[in-house]
Amino acid sequence: MSARPRIGSRWTALVGAGALALAAPVFGLETVTLRHVHGLGYSPDGSRLMIPSHDGLAVYSDGRWSKAPGPEHDFMGFAVTRDFIISSGHPARGAGRANPLGLIRSRDGGRSWTRLGFEAEAEFHVVAAGYANNVVYVHNPAPNSRMPRPGIYRMIGKGPAWRGASGRGLHGELHTLAVHPTQAELIAAATSAGLFLSRDAGDEFKQVMAGAHATAAHFALEGDLLWFSAFDGKPSLFRVAIGDDAREETALPPLERDAVANIAQNPARRAEFAIVTFERAVFLTPDAGTTWTRIAPPRGSAPER
Cys-Cys crosslink for 230: which of 21, 182, 212, 268, Cβ 3.0 to 4.6 Å? Predict the structure, then answer.
């Protein structure tokens, strides 16, 4: 089980595209650039869709794009709960912060950030958190002062301390972790070998889908479904019922040599979901996948007006 590679190398592994070094322009009140997107999440009131990038948080609200207030850090791993945002990455130029940032948390929508440790020693490309239970998981790519070996760790207490998971049954290159909104020990892992579920905080995993790359996973806020995306020559999006593993495919918008990289659900309008692709196109659906609207183009195409 390896650390989550950067978006460019992940997509190269899937379809052979080149590294995504160029910016994709998105226009609204101001020019906003999505670079190597590493996550996706809604504000608790559902009014803002937030996308972490290499120069701060991009925000989509009221049909327009803007930059979130706060430091323009190079955000890597990223997760949003009812109470906070948690992330990792590298500090903005002139921020006076250690590099890498370690693990950081914001309780005011990204305006300010507090340290949770690992400054100057670790960055986490895979970060997940339960929406209602606030439990945090990370994938650690290399040993550090508080995590003696690579693998999945769960935050315990306010200290915080970290508990390592055994990860038995999990294989393939890890792309994404997802945490159930209320059941702290129920997690999903999307890897190059498929989709996996664990009900004991990552000690034992059961494979739910094989034969394709699983690229993203997201537990519905109602707690009854797991959404996940895959790529097997073509992109796909599924919903899996928690408990019986019954799977239903959901229609995607047209994607050319692309696939879903992240999934998010609007807490205020539960039928609304957002996806961002490896080519950094962003889509919204108001009806759980029946119809889709593109709100940001893939790299190299004409900007949305």
Answer: 212
